[in-house]
Amino acid sequence: MAQTTPNHTQTVSGWAAHDASGEITPYVFKRRENGINDVTIEILYCGMCHTDIHHVKNDWGITMYPVVPGHEITGIITKVGSNVRKFKIGDKVGVGCLAATCLECEFCKDSQENYCDQVQLTYNGIFWDGSITYGGYSKMLVADHRYVVHVPDSLPMDAAAPLLCAGITVYAPMKDQNLLEAGAAAKYIGVVGLGGLGHVAVKFAKAFGHHVTVISTSPSKEKEARERLGADDFLISTDIEQMKAKKRTLDFIVNTVSAKHSLGPLLELLKVNGTLVIVGAPDKPLDLPSFPIIFGKRVVKGSMTGSIKETQEMMDLCGQRNITCDIEVVQTDQINEALDRLAKNDVKYRFVIDIAGKSSS
Ligand SMILES: [Zn+2]
Ligand SMILES: [Zn+2]
């Protein structure tokens, strides 16, 4: 697990946490030279994901400090390796959660490399050369071109950034469930939690023509969910009567909540044979009662981000339909404050760091 490899000669300014306090401070480090399969990206924006908090605070016990978080990266290509055909200097691109995979297993060969057993993530991973990966809270990134996507010209680079994790995380399970085009077969979709992931899930589900119910613990979110995001229905998950009244009404639920909760009341909302997909990652096990699964023949499954092919599809679709994330842009000296607010879900709906200092807000 060598951290210094001979070709890591490019000096980069970034922001890192150095211990479990999670405090982020400026950090200068090295990245590899641009290899034959690499592109170098001048980072413009980086979204702030809940996963970043878990990593900077070592909640999962896997953090390799110093950690430079960030896996919702948009920027401009400044160098391309000799093997790279898909990108050229000046292209607008994005990088999400994936930095490397084995390229040889059944999943890698079938454009499902996000399920590769050897997957290495954009930060706190180990790249092929043995170096620790550093993420997008930094001015520049060297990425293998196979894990980079184009950002359509019609999308703003700041509001597109969270699509690279929050967006694809909810898009992929909807695609997996054949929900991309409702047509005559509009479904009843539940979105649990109206945060970074949830708000994009509502936008996608509405764009695809489905009936959308937002399920939240916060009554204060109802007005906005209905009026601005276009949700058709709103349920307070702690209101037992309200939840009971909607038993067996939903075809599919995407659960974005990352705090501990019981799946039982949510499962009861599903029709027979309905599916609940977990994309939020609580650090404690969830309560999963057997009765609602058995009596409703229901399915509980997970979904881990998306493949690069799916991510490109999603970006193109967002470009065509003008789907972006609702963001609050912060400057690099506001990262700690933003992380604190994110931990309290005090953001509508995603913080994006203005890495290059190009926004005036
Ligand atoms: Zn993320
Ligand atoms: Zn693989």
From TrEMBL:
The keyword Oxidoreductase applies. One of its GO terms (biological process) is lignin biosynthetic process. PROSITE patterns: ADH_ZINC. Transmembrane segments: none annotated. Its cofactor is Zn(2+). Keywords: Metal-binding, Oxidoreductase, Zinc. Residues 22-353 form the Enoyl reductase (ER) domain. One of its GO terms (molecular function) is metal ion binding. InterPro entries: ADH-like_C (IPR013149), ADH-like_N (IPR013154), ADH_Zn_CS (IPR002328), CAD-like (IPR047109), ER (IPR020843), GroES-like_sf (IPR011032), NAD(P)-bd_dom_sf (IPR036291). Belongs to the zinc-containing alcohol dehydrogenase family. PANTHER family: ALDEHYDE REDUCTASE. This is Enoyl reductase (ER) domain-containing protein. The lineage of its organism: Eukaryota, Viridiplantae, Streptophyta, Embryophyta, Tracheophyta.
